[in-house]
């Protein structure tokens, strides 16, 4: 900088060129060591097969593949069973497509579905769904542990036919002990880290695949045989054996159509919906690979390929098993023995090992998934210090505290001891998460943001909607009460996070969607179709010092009537002489002011060589399409000292406003004239520096129980004593703004007082009736007060020296100070009780620019000491009596 200042640009350039080189040489060794550490850490990350395919496969298989295939075919028949799988996988695939799209649209961190949803839909949605996903994984892990305990006790806890002892003691506390031991085993694996978890699940995967191969072989290798059915409930009667027939056409024909009967385990009659709900549980493991996103080498590559591979593989296995079962097993066997695959296997313990292995794997998968979601939420600080412990990790990056917290909650769920107690709610929670992922992808697609360009393109907004609808239908099909309660719980969490969590820097999809829709509707807003019936004020309020303009800013917010409201500010300067745009740093402070005052306004700042040019800029360019300001509001040009009305100094903290004026009276009036030339209505606001809206709307009253608020309207041009017209464009504009203020909820109790200036010698009844009829036609409720002003008019003519002259050549009529003081006193005399605000007629500035200063002097005398006053000039028709 010094070099440039002294005319030596080369000096400054050389130093900035050398510094990075020196820094690079000093830090080379540090960067190399960090790179080696990063490479070692990367080597420990999981591949697509170990990190996504295996966990997803095992989670989707779980126990359904071994223990519920018979239920689906036996109750629903082959046709309906296949239809169920097709429908279920269509629902699942819609969500898988959304997962693939989001995961290939940039870097993915730990947290899986939570990370996708929170970064797409924002912290509120992400946090609420994240908690539900965490709870779903916790309950899912407990569900699998309880399922494994039940499977173990059904094999080893029941006395055998030839002996009178139990291999394993059974009962609630014994079951809890077994469940605790299994949960501890899962905890140990997850505490060591994702690498050991991957090796363990690979071992289990090999076991499950071997078992599945033996199951398929058994259909061909095992000879037809009679199988003993499990005992029914006491006092129940029925067949005690059923047949494995091998491949027979008669067996297939007997299993094609549905035959819903009573489930022998629950004694409830099965329906399409209940069978579908049970079978669908086997398809809800698609997020197991996504949950490991923080432990994958390349999540954006691995998640789509691994998840799709697992989904296709499981679908093929389910369909093949259903066909083989329908061709070889009696309908009675399928309906009365859900563990028949064990009885027809080449070696019976194979299926038992498969059930144990798949269930243990699913329990571990849910536990490690829960810990990763909890860790991701803790890192994002959505819940403040509540989850600060969950951020801790080991040297290898394993979030061991999150694992411990998840395991502790799993242990608590185990105390329920009942599988069916939590099975439905777990599935509904998972479905809610899937629907949220579809919603996130749908929102990103509809927002049409340029940065949403996933490398996976096999999805559309139609697939997202189908996924959302499918998940919603399944939720209510499984349990309508649980589904409704889950949605209500999610909405409650959403509201809590919205009001309690800090602002995030992830971006809000709502802003992108709003932008997309607003742009579309702005293009549809055709200014050529504007009609006076639907006119509303679109206001540009010029603010010099916002700290002293709080009263005016809040008041103008009341008269915008759902129209455009823009706060404009002109900063004097020349961009050629500045290093950067000074307005960029101020813009956020202005937005903070808007938030602080709780007003619905936009902010427009401009840099100009004069205030007049700046206002012209804003009048020309403010707004967009059919939403452009039609009314300019200016503070009055007087000597009132500005007062700071903002309690919080941090709201607007760039303090460059001084008390001195930055424009003269000539320029001020020129701005008014410019606006009228541009066919903008003009409002000058005086004495609003001490205006307190809350105090005005709740004034102290001498009469107990009665509080009166008045708004005074003087719809005649008081600078033209010869004018007594109340129906010109400007007068009607005054009435419209006063009526709009009276329509605002907080101002509805205010009474409009309309002052009718009359001469004493003439009948008051005619003009009053005429004005009353006009108000009736315009649907404006106001009190009419006739005011004699002969003395003031006479004073004017006396000063003019033309008593009989009743014609004025232009709007530049000269009026004396005595006349203006008399009119001012007349207005003050009518102020009983004192009005909250006055609306006065603003005449046009004189055509002769040399008389601008005199014009401003006239306005100042007219409004002297009147309290909050609006001088208003309307240039366009705004009122109609038509329907």
TrEMBL record:
<dbReference type="InterPro" id="IPR004842">
    <property type="entry name" value="SLC12A_fam"/>
</dbReference>
<feature type="transmembrane region" description="Helical">
    <location>
        <begin position="270"/>
        <end position="289"/>
    </location>
</feature>
<protein>
    <recommendedName>
        <fullName>Solute carrier family 12 member 9</fullName>
    </recommendedName>
</protein>
<feature type="transmembrane region" description="Helical">
    <location>
        <begin position="129"/>
        <end position="152"/>
    </location>
</feature>
<dbReference type="InterPro" id="IPR018491">
    <property type="entry name" value="SLC12_C"/>
</dbReference>
<dbReference type="GO" id="GO:0055064">
    <property type="term" value="P:chloride ion homeostasis"/>
</dbReference>
<keyword id="KW-0813">Transport</keyword>
<feature type="transmembrane region" description="Helical">
    <location>
        <begin position="310"/>
        <end position="334"/>
    </location>
</feature>
<feature type="transmembrane region" description="Helical">
    <location>
        <begin position="422"/>
        <end position="444"/>
    </location>
</feature>
<feature type="transmembrane region" description="Helical">
    <location>
        <begin position="172"/>
        <end position="194"/>
    </location>
</feature>
<feature type="transmembrane region" description="Helical">
    <location>
        <begin position="346"/>
        <end position="375"/>
    </location>
</feature>
<feature type="transmembrane region" description="Helical">
    <location>
        <begin position="481"/>
        <end position="500"/>
    </location>
</feature>
<dbReference type="GO" id="GO:0006884">
    <property type="term" value="P:cell volume homeostasis"/>
</dbReference>
<comment type="similarity">
    <text>Belongs to the SLC12A transporter family.</text>
</comment>
<keyword id="KW-1133">Transmembrane helix</keyword>
<dbReference type="Pfam" id="PF03522">
    <property type="entry name" value="SLC12"/>
</dbReference>
<feature type="domain" description="Amino acid permease/ SLC12A">
    <location>
        <begin position="51"/>
        <end position="540"/>
    </location>
</feature>
<dbReference type="GO" id="GO:0055075">
    <property type="term" value="P:potassium ion homeostasis"/>
</dbReference>
<dbReference type="Pfam" id="PF00324">
    <property type="entry name" value="AA_permease"/>
</dbReference>
<feature type="transmembrane region" description="Helical">
    <location>
        <begin position="456"/>
        <end position="475"/>
    </location>
</feature>
<feature type="transmembrane region" description="Helical">
    <location>
        <begin position="201"/>
        <end position="222"/>
    </location>
</feature>
<dbReference type="GO" id="GO:0015379">
    <property type="term" value="F:potassium:chloride symporter activity"/>
</dbReference>
<keyword id="KW-0812">Transmembrane</keyword>
<feature type="domain" description="SLC12A transporter C-terminal">
    <location>
        <begin position="552"/>
        <end position="695"/>
    </location>
</feature>
<feature type="transmembrane region" description="Helical">
    <location>
        <begin position="82"/>
        <end position="108"/>
    </location>
</feature>
<keyword id="KW-0472">Membrane</keyword>
<feature type="transmembrane region" description="Helical">
    <location>
        <begin position="396"/>
        <end position="416"/>
    </location>
</feature>
<dbReference type="InterPro" id="IPR004841">
    <property type="entry name" value="AA-permease/SLC12A_dom"/>
</dbReference>
<dbReference type="GO" id="GO:0016020">
    <property type="term" value="C:membrane"/>
</dbReference>
<feature type="transmembrane region" description="Helical">
    <location>
        <begin position="46"/>
        <end position="70"/>
    </location>
</feature>
């Amino acid at each position: 900088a010094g070099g440039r200042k002294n005319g030596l640009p080369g000096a400054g350039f050389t130093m900035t060129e050398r510094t990075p080189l020196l820094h690079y040489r000093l830090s080379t060794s540090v960067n190399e060591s960090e790179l080696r550490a990063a490479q070692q850490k990367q080597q420990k990350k999981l591949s697509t097969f170990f990190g996504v395919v295996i966990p997803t496969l095992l989670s989707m298989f779980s126990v359904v593949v071994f223990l519920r295939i018979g239920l689906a075919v036996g109750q629903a028949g082959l046709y309906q069973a296949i239809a169920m799988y097709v429908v279920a996988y269509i629902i699942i695939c819609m969500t898988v497509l959304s997962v693939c799209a989001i995961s290939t649209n940039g870097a993915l961190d730990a947290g899986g579905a939570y990370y996708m949803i929170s970064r797409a839909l924002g912290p509120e949605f992400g946090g609420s769904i994240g908690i539900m996903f965490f709870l779903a994984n916790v309950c899912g892990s407990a569900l699998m542990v309880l399922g494994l305990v039940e499977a173990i006790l059904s094999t080893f806890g029941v006395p055998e036919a030839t002996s009178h002892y139990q291999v394993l003691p059974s009962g609630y506390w014994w079951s809890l002990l077994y469940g605790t031991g299994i949960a501890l085993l899962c905890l140990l694996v997850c505490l060591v880290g994702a690498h050991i978890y991957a090796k363990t699940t690979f071992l289990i995967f090999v076991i499950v695949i071997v078992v599945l191969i033996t199951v398929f072989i058994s259909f061909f290798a095992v000879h037809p045989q009679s199988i003993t059915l499990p005992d029914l409930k006491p006092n129940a009667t029925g067949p005690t054996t059923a047949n494995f027939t091998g491949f027979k056409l008669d067996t297939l024909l007997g299993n094609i159509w549905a035959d819903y009967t009573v489930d022998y385990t629950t004694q409830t009659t099965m329906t399409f919906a209940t069978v579908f709900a049970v079978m669908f549980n086997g398809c809800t493991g698609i997020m197991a690979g996504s949950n490991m996103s923080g432990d994958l080498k390349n999540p954006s590559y691995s998640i789509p390929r691994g998840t799709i591979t697992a989904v296709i593989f499981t679908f093929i296995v389910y369909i093949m098993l259903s066909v083989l079962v329908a061709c070889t097993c009696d309908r009675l066997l399928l309906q009365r023995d859900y563990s028949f695959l064990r009885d027809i296997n080449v070696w019976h313990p194979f299926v038992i090992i498969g059930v144990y292995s798949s269930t243990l794997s699913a329990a571990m998968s849910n536990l490690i998934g829960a810990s990763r979601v909890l860790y991701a939420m803790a890192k994002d600080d959505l819940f403040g210090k509540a989850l600060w412990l969950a951020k801790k990790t080991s040297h290898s990056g394993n979030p061991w505290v999150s694992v411990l917290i998840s395991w502790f909650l799993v242990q608590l769920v185990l105390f329920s001891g009942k599988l069916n107690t939590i099975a439905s709610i777990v599935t509904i929670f998972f479905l809610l998460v899937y629907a949220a992922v579809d919603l996130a992808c749908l929102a990103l697609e509809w927002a049409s943001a340029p940065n949403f360009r996933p490398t996976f393109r096999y999805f559309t907004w139609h697939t997202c909607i189908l996924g959302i609808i499918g998940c919603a239908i399944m939720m209510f099909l499984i349990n309508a009460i649980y589904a409704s309660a889950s949605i209500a719980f999610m909405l409650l969490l959403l509201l809590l996070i919205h009001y309690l969590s800090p602002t995030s820097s992830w971006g809000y999809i709502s802003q992108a969607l709003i932008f997309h829709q607003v742009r579309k509707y702005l293009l549809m807003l055709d200014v050529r179709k504007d009609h006076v019936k639907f006119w509303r004020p679109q206001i540009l309020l010029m603010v010099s010092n916002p700290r002293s303009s709080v009263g005016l800013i809040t008041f103008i917010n009341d008269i915008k009537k759902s129209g455009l409201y823009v706060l404009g500010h002109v900063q004097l300067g020349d961009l050629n002489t500045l290093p950067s745009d000074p307005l960029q740093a101020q813009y956020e402070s202005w937005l903070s002011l808007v938030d602080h005052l709780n007003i619905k306004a936009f902010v427009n700042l401009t840099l100009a060589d004069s205030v007049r040019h700046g206002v012209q800029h804003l009048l020309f360019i403010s707004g967009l399409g059919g939403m452009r300001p039609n009314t300019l509001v200016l503070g009055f040009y007087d000597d009132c000292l500005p007062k700071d009305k903002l309690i919080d100094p941090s709201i607007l903290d760039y303090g460059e406003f001084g008390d001195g004026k930055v424009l003269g009276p000539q320029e001020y009036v020129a701005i008014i004239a410019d606006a009228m030339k541009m066919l903008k209505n003009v409002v000058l606001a005086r004495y609003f520096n001490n205006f307190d809206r809350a105090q005005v709307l709740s004034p102290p009253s001498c009469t107990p129980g009665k509080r009166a608020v008045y708004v005074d309207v003087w719809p005649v041009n008081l600078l033209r004593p010869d004018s007594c017209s109340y129906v010109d464009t400007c007068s009607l504009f005054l009435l419209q703004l006063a009526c709009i203020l009276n329509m605002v909820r907080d101002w509805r109790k205010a009474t409009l007082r309309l002052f009718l200036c009359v001469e004493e010698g003439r009948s008051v009844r005619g003009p009053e009736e005429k004005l009353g009829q006009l108000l009736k036609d315009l649907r404006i409720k106001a009190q009419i007060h006739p005011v004699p002003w002969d003395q003031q008019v006479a004073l004017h003519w006396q000063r003019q020296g033309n008593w009989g002259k009743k014609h004025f050549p232009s709007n530049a009529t000269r009026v004396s100070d005595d006349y203006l003081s008399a009119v001012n006193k007349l207005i003050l005399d009518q102020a009983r009780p004192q009005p909250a605000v006055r609306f006065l007629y603003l005449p046009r500035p004189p055509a002769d620019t040399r008389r601008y200063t005199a014009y401003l002097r006239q306005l100042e005398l007219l409004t002297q000491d009147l309290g909050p006053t609006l001088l208003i000039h309307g240039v366009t028709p705004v009122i109609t009596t038509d329907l």
